[in-house]
Amino acid sequence: NAFSLVSGSRSSKTFKPKKNIPEGSHQYELLKHAEATLGSGNLRQAVMLPEGEDLNEWIAVNTVDFFNQINMLYGTITEFCMESSCPVMSAGPRYEYHWADGTNIKKPIKCSAPKYIDYLMTWVQDQLDDETLFPSKIGVPFPKNFMSVAKTILKRLFRVYAHIYHQHFDSVMRLQEEAHLNTSFKHFIFFVQEFNLIDRRELAPLQELIEKLGSKDR
């Protein structure tokens, strides 16, 4: 059960509130559609734009969903991701990330992984909460720069997966959550591949895993 890991004492560790899509809204219907097609087990098909739907809206709904999934996954391993164990935000020895959001922090700063992920998730949450960027009301148009904002969000969310896989996979295994992590990541990768949302270079830290996940679906 994908949701069993929110029960119990660990739920308090999830450090960002879940972003809810309002029930009864069109986006809520789209989310329900996404969940239903995921159940079919064919992820390549599940990520495709449903007939007659708006691409921006489909990307918006799924971006919110990925934020919630990653928030939950990272929430289960926060006790293992500390300043002492992860003094830099890395994805293996070859990839290190420095934080900048372009507004509050313009020059990239080197910081610990928990600090980086906190900055990152707070930044994503602020974007998702901005009604001018992610309109939740029907008929309110998406802004012209929506696609570039969505791409930046997804690029950054990928880094959390990359950090979990490279630095905390043993903890994920111990918690018996690898199937959940793999399914979530596979869904994420198929989605960004379908709409070409993340530059290949950005995906390099998990390239082998991405190829492995993709080859099973040919």
TrEMBL record:
Renumbered residue ranges of the record's region Disordered: 1-21
Keywords assigned by UniProt, alphabetized: Kinase, Metal-binding, Transferase, Zinc
| Zinc found in the keyword field | yes
Q: Is Metal-binding among the key words of this record? A: yes
Give the residues the record marks as binding Zn(2+): 81, 86, 163, 168
In alphabetical order, the GO MF annotations are: kinase activity
Supply the name of the protein.
MOB1A kinase
Its source organism is Menura novaehollandiae
